[in-house]
Amino acid sequence: QVQLVESGGGLVQAGGSLRLSCAASGRTFSSYPVMGWFRQAPGKEREFVASISWSGGVTYYAAFVKGRFTISRDNAKNTVYLQMNGLEPEDTAVYYCAVDRVGSRLRSGRSDYWGQGTQVTVSS
User: Fold this and answer.
1) What are the phi and psi torsion angles at 106 (to 5°)?
2) Which helix (H) or strand (E) covers residue 107, if one does?
3) Could you read off the pLDDT of 28-84 as tens digits, one per residue?
4) What are the pLDDT digits (tens) for 80-96?
5) What's the CA gap between 74 and 76, in Å, rounded?
6) What is the pLDDT of residue 29?
7) 20 to 30 Å CA-CA from 54: which of 36, 78, 85, 123?
8) Is the model's pLDDT at 1 over the cut of 90?
9) What's the pLDDT score for residue 66?
């Protein structure tokens, strides 16, 4: 089992920044090297935001990120981060962390392990 706990969400004005964190724990966590972020806005389906490999050398981003977000990780802390700059009202959503063994599986949203989510609200 893997437990994921997100933090760092909040209310920010358009153009502002937030850094989300996701701390992972569990005996089998090391078996799930890929970590990533998704988001779900009200009335919309959950969508992929970004993912990162165990080494941090391979990252993927959704097109809408447009260079505004950066995913990183600290394996010593079992934590993945999402630095979000230039936030827009359209970024308002609940942001979820996920882990998986395979990057393509994670990016497709089929991971077995998800956090509870952290709310990000961007005001105009």
Assistant:
1) -60, -50
2) helix 103-107
3) 777 899 999 999 999 999 999 999 999 999 999 999 998 999 999 999 999 999 999
4) 999 999 999 999 999 99
5) 5
6) 74
7) 85
8) no
9) 84
- Residue 87's alpha-carbon distances to 15, 42, 71, in angstroms, are 5, 17, 15
Cα distances from 26 to residues 2, 71, 78, in angstroms, run: 5, 22, 10
Q: Rounded CA gap, 72 and 55, in Å?
A: 10
98 with 5: CB under 8 angstroms? no
Token pair in block for residue 55: 């080494």
Identity of the residue numbered 50 = A
Q: Name the token pair of 65.
A: 């990120």
- How is residue 100 written in tokens? 């998986």
- Give the Cα separation of 32 and 27 in Å (integer): 11
